[in-house]
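Quick board copy: two proteins, each given as sequence then tokens.
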Amino acid sequence: MRSMLLAISFLTIAPVYGNRVADEREFANSLYYYPLVGFIIGMILFAVVRLCEPLGPGIAAEVLILSVWVLITGALHLDGLMDSADGLFSGRAKEQKLEIMKDSRIGAMGAITLVIVILLKVAFLDSLAIADQSWVLLVAPAVGRFMMVYTICRYPYARPGGGLGAAFGGEAGYPKLMGALLLLLAGAWLAQAWTALTAAVITIALGALIAAWIAKQLGGVTGDTFGAVCESSETIFIITAALLVS
């Protein structure tokens, strides 16, 4: 239970873990619950979709849904996406990319990437019927958070000095990855059977390529890149699901 509360506190604005200090083992055990936290976020978004039905066709509902999505996560993953984009697209050497990513100021590439991701999410959500929006928004956050688990378990930490992303230490491994994968696939199947499952598998494959590219650029991964992989995977899932149902 404590590991699940830690996962909720780490991935959302809900301070359910309190002020306790977690060790590497507990951080690693919390990885099992990342997709579950994603589904919890998805259920909140599902409720928002239903509440927005009176707004009718148009992007007003999608913008409101995205606003709630960002609020729930405290924009943590979007911040990682922007920092990662500034570093990865800077054209500099690995060490300089990592330094750029540590800078709290937003650069041009970070801002551009943020706008593109938000526009893609809004546009492809708007292309879906309300019934399809419901299951897509239920599963998308879970896929994104599973890809965080994949990245954490698959690649070493890039910064020699450590950081928040290094909190999992050597305790993160394939048992956590497989447990999170089974939870994701089961949830996707229950949400929309083969359609959701197919979109999830395609997203995992493409997300894995993104994670591999990032790790090659930086010599590993960081806390910022976890957020970048999460946001990228959520966007890919929404696009893939929209194409499948069309």
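And the next:
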Amino acid sequence: MEYRQLGGSGFKVPALSLGTGTFGGGNEFFKSWGTSDVAEATRLVDICLEAGLTMFDSADVYSGGMAEEILGQAIKGRRNQVLISTKGTFRTGPGPNDLGSSRFHLTEAVEASLRRLGTDHIDLYQLHGFDARTPVEEVLLTLDNLVRSGKIRYIGCSNFSGWHLMKSLSISQMHGLARYIAHQAYYSLVGRDYEWELMPLAIDQKIGSVIWSPLGWGKLTGKLRRGQALPETTRLQSKLSNDKGPPVSNEQVFKVIDAIDGIAKETGKTVTQIALNWLLQRPTVSTIIVGARNEEQLRQNLGAVGWNLTPAQVAKLDAASATTPAYPYWHQRGFPELNPAPV
């Protein structure tokens, strides 16, 4: 397994991480992802460690905390062999302070995650979303205190806009506070909005990208095909899951899959492996979070590393997945001498 620097820090992470959204299946939404219990989760962790995949990503809202609890059981007795990343900010209860990035909620959320995970520290703690109601200074002071106390090693954020992230970085620099080194963002061959602003920002500010849903919310698994019915075992069968997923037209997905199919014939790799390998060659990408309902899916995802698409194959996928960006990015791209493409 290749290891990469996470942003401008000295922290190294594996190119692939295992997402634990499939652990538990605590409600209708998460059941569409997976229902791994402790035994199955432990087996998946075993396979990951054998392959050199040592980082496991979770969140306090995954199956109401069950995912963290199951992960904690699955790594019991081998905490020193793994890296844990988890997230907080989203609602965890009915109370007025059971959500957000306030000092109150983040402190409670971190303590609760530590208990569920059965550990005394979290290697990478990320805000699951931006909280516009809490002052950025309060958020960063709270995270800085948690870092200084040893409960968190590094901090990151997720689903921030460019100005959210840049404002936070500026305040960290101004006050000498712990700095976000990672941005967990959606990025895939059928969702390239990340490239418009967040990727140039990440290059400039040395932010490592932790990619969620790299297969376009399950659309790039090879199960979605023109004129074919969906199999029963896919989250694409869940209306609830689909409604919450990234928007993309079926025609755009089919266009990308057509290009992937051509490369699959050249390489002997699967749709999934090609889609993941394309991401591994993109600027700023530090680690890609892969999910797995079972051992078969996990082993297929692990097959995305150890080889590279050719420049010609990358160019073919770039062309098939290209879309017109929103303003002002389409305008800026008209002046490549002033705004070169990220490298």
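Board note added afterward: Residues 3-332 form a domain with the TIM Barrel fold (CATH 3.20.20.100).
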